[in-house]
Amino acid sequence: MKRLVWVLTAVCAFGITTVQSSAYAQEKIKVLSDGPLRPALMPIAEAFRRDRGNEIEYVFGTSPVVHKKVADGETADVLIIQPDFVAELVKSGKVVPGEYPVIGRVGFGLAGRADAPARDVGTVEAFKQVLLNTDVLIFNNVASGNYFATVLERLNIAEAVKPKVVRIPPAEVFERIKRGKGNDLGVGTIPQIVADKNLRLIGPLPAELQSYIVYTAAPMSNAPSPKAAKAFIAFLGSPAAKALFAANAVEPGNAR
Question: Average of pLDDT values for 19-33?
């Protein structure tokens, strides 16, 4: 009789543990992320689902937009944005304090329509000539666009190309390129260019002119699923995630 009671107790305990593990695995994780990482983060979500059983719900926007959403009270489990914005949200109590390593970075490239002819932009001089010979030069009106404006200054062609420059919100840059002609070019993040079949990556900015947007991942203080959030952040530093970052033109970072 005692043995029967022990067996029944063990079975019940195992059942409770199984139910709890299953419930944990079914938790959906909400992630607010900067848009340039989207091509890599989508397959990473699928890999994480296969590994852990958790679904990932992404909400994409620029880092300033994500920062404002969180500052205004939006709740999520994980933020993937630029480190300076994470630091501000730690100070305001929105993000759990801690050291959050870089999970990846993205560089900038020159894009044309898919049917645009190939061009040599491998050197600073070649890049400069392509910009001088384009009909329209499109880039955004936020921080990364401001950086490219300084590139034009460094090349001493800012005044020469000024009549052909079109500066618009980030979400509109690629659509404007696709509506244009084959000699209309734009500047954007390489992962987003490569992921769009209607665009052609003419080439990355030359090394001497290249800049990168760096990203980190951090858990929110009021995360609905804190354990699952921590597991996802750890997964972003795994070999599987790093391979998916690299395959989608994101240089992997050093997340753990």
Answer: 70
Please choose, from the candidates 206, 208, 225, the residue with its C-alpha nearest in 3D space to the C-alpha of residue 119: 206
d(CA 37, CA 80): 9
Number of other CB atoms surrounding residue 235 within 10 Å: 19
Q: 168: which 2 tokens?
A: 């618009």
Average pLDDT of 144-167? 98
The pLDDT tens digits of the residues spanning 48-93 come to 999 999 999 999 999 999 999 999 999 999 999 999 999 999 999 9
Question: Tokens 């070999």 map to which residue?
Answer: 239
How many CB atoms are located within 10 Å of the residue 205 CB?
20
Neighbours of 248 (CB within 10 A): 22
Q: Could you tell me the pTM of the whole model?
A: 0.86
Report helix, strand or coil for 204: strand
Rounded mean pLDDT, 12-33: 61
Query: What's the rounded Cα separation, in Å, for the pair 53 and 28?
Result: 9
Token pair listed for 189: 């993040």
Distance CA(101)–CA(105), nearest Å, equals 11
Q: In sequence order, what are the residues at sequence separation of 6 or more whose Cβ sits closer than 8 angstroms to the Cβ of residue 89?
A: 67, 70, 71, 79, 95, 218
What pLDDT, on a 0 to 100 scale, did the predictor assign at position 253? Answer: 82
Q: In this predicted model, what pLDDT tens digit does every residue of 179-229 receive, in sequence order?
A: 998 899 999 999 999 999 999 999 999 999 999 999 999 999 999 999 999
- Per 3-state DSSP, the chain is made up of helix, strand and coil in percentages (nearest 5) of 50, 25, 30
Distance CA 146, CA 139 (A): 9
Rounded CA gap, 122 and 120, in Å? 6
